[in-house]
Structures are given as structure tokens and as C-alpha cells.
Give the backbone structure.
Amino acid sequence: MTEQTLAGKVAYITGAARGQGRSHAIRLARAGADIVAVDVCAPIAEFSGYPMAEPEDLAETARLVESEGRKILTQQLDVRDLAAQQRVIADTIATFGRLDIVVANAGVCSWGRIWEISPEQFREAVDINLTGVWNTIKAVVPPMIEAGNGGSIMTISSSAGVKAPPGCGHYAASKFGVVGLTKTLAVELGEYGIRANVLLPYGTNTPLGTDTSMYKLFEEHPGFVYSFPPNLLKTDGLVEPDEISDVVVWLAGDQARVITGAQVPVDKGFLAR
Ligand SMILES: NC(=O)c1ccc[n+]([C@@H]2O[C@H](COP(=O)([O-])OP(=O)(O)OC[C@H]3O[C@@H](n4cnc5c(N)ncnc54)[C@H](O)[C@@H]3O)[C@@H](O)[C@H]2O)c1
């Protein structure tokens, strides 16, 4: 997909320093969009078994977007900070004059049985994965409506947002919430020509997706492993971020102009099993 289908458009991506978010930034830029990329770039996830991105990662995303010939604005922020997201969206409008595409992608994962995790671990998942997405929506929607250009908002939930796995009930609860939020959003935004769709990735090749801290739970509760079966396709193994970006670029553009309120699995058939 090298065609410049998104020329003249501007995309805001959260969690864009690495992983899926960086891939979406590069691919949306390649399709012609200018990019606003934000990420916390700090060790804020107390309960995750893998590190968060670092400032150098966000700088590398900027370099990669610029090498596609597009402009990029970057900002270190925590999606839990509504005012910070509102400020960067105001900067986006001041710099680029518009906002067309949003990928609410920032998220964290941690492991533990529901009654054994602490209140703090539960709150961390919900505050970042669900309230963080609501903050993004609250920051982006008013200026998008005011611009009157329509647009495409994508939220990144998970297969765990429709099929709850053992060992991460707090994560599943936050991701089920993202599905509900997005589907209501699609209904409320229809009259403005703004589409809203939710993506449901399964195991994807990123630091979150290759975190091995879940193995301890599998050793203690071997039955849990049956909730994570192999996918249906011959191309077994993790999904690559670039394969999720294929779907993001499609949903961002006019080829998906009749798609809104959809839950889009990007999981090699995991949810069908
Ligand atoms: N990798 C998988 O297997 C998988 C599967 C299903 C869903 N997802 C979802 O995909 C999204 C992207 O994750 P990924 O796989 O690229 O993982 P990742 O850890 O590589 O990337 C997530 C990025 O979000 C950033 N981030 C985390 N908390 C933040 C906060 N509070 N504010 C701002 N930025 C923050 C991190 O620094 C990191 O750069 C997440 O929402 C995740 O839940 C991932």
C-alpha cells in the first residue's frame, strides 16, 4: 500500500514510541499523513513484567516518519493526563490546522488472578487502558467536529476485549470497556461523518506481546494455557505490528468509509476457535 491515500491528513497516535504505535506512525506517514506521536517514555507501569519505551524510542519514531517525507510533532505525555492530551491536540491544530485520524493505542498489560492482584494493579490497568482512551476521545472529538472534515478514530482493544482470558481479568475488564466506549462513540459521531472502530489484536510481536512474566501463572495453573490456543492460519506465530498497520491504514482512509462501529479482529482467527 504505497499509494498516498491519506495525503493532506493529520493523524494522532498514542503509545507511538515503539511497537504497534510506531508502526502505525510510519505506515500512516507512508500513506501521506502528517503525524502527532505521543508516548509516556518513562517507567510508569509498576506491575508490567516488561519495560515501557524510552525518550530515544520516540525520537527514533520521529526519524522514521521524517524519512517517509512527512512532518511529525512528538510529545512525552501520560494518557492518564487529560489536560496534557488536550494541550497537544491544541498544538496539533495550531501546527497543522486539522486532525483527521486518531489511533488510541497506548496500553499496558500485567498478570495475576483477579482476587490476588492489589487495588493498585487493578487501577493501573483501568486508568491507562480505559480512562486513557476516554481521555484521548475527550481531547480529540471537539476539534474534529468543529473542523467539519469527518475523520476516523480507531481504538486498540484486544481479543481479551471480547473473550476474557484467565490471568489478566483486570486487563480484560479494561479492554472490554474500550469496546463499549468505541461502539457508543460510533453512534454518537455518525451525524458528524466521523467513524469509530475498535481493533482486536491477539499476540503481536512487541515488548508487551513477548512478555514472559505470564509463564509463572501457566506453571502454577496449567489449565490456563488452553485459553491461549494457536491461531488458525499456516503462518503460525505472533502477528507483526506492520500487519496491524495494514488494517489501521485501511480503516483510516476512504476505502473504509462505510465501516463504523465495527469490532475488527486482527488475530489470525484466534477468536474464531
Ligand atoms: N502485543 C500484543 O500481543 C497485544 C495484543 C492485543 C492488544 N494489544 C494492545 O496493543 C496496544 C499497543 O501495545 P504494543 O503491543 O505495541 O506494546 P508496547 O508495550 O510495545 O507499546 C505500548 C506503548 O505505550 C506506551 N505507554 C504505556 N503506558 C502509557 C501511558 N500511560 N501513556 C502514554 N504511553 C504509554 C509505552 O511506553 C509503549 O511505547 C496496547 O493497547 C495493547 O494493550 C497488544
Observations:
- The CA atoms of residues 40 and 76 lie 5 Å apart.
